[in-house]
Amino acid sequence: MKLVFTAKHPTEAHLIRGLLQSEGIAAEVRGDQLYGAFGELPVLPTVWIREATDEADALRLVGEFLRGTPARRHHHERWICAGCGESLEGQFTDCWNCGGARQATT
Ligand SMILES: [Zn+2]
Asked: Where in the chain is the domain with CATH 3.30.70?
């Protein structure tokens, strides 16, 4: 087990755990039941990964999460050009057909 993240509250810890698991990294939250139980000495929930070999990936994902990068695999989703209707692979930011920029979809 390796500690990869200390959360500010249980919700954040579970978000991180879900994110890691969606990427195939076995992770678990510890300490969330203890949150707030000690009054003046709050125990912060932590996220642990099972395999140390996943550490680099896990830390990268956590880093992206903290920077606000969408956790979902947005960049792998196809998108439709608003200019010409062409269907494009998610890695393209501009339409190869008409040069139109990708529109924000959210
Ligand atoms: Zn286009």
From this structure: 2-66
pTM exceeding 0.70: no
Distance in angstroms (rounded) separating the CA atoms of residues 104 and 106? 6
Mean pLDDT for the stretch of residues 75-85: 82
Q: Could you tell me which residues come within 8 angstroms of residue 86 by beta carbon, excluding any fewer than 6 positions away?
A: 80, 95, 96, 97, 98
Compute the distance from residue 3 Cα to the ligand 1 centre, in Å: 45
C-alpha 75, offset from chain centre: 13
State the distance from the centre of ligand 1 to the C-alpha of 16, rounded, in angstroms.
36
What confidence tens digit (pLDDT) does each residue in 27-53 have? 999 987 765 555 555 678 899 999 999
Return the CATH number of the domain spanning residue range 2-66: 3.30.70
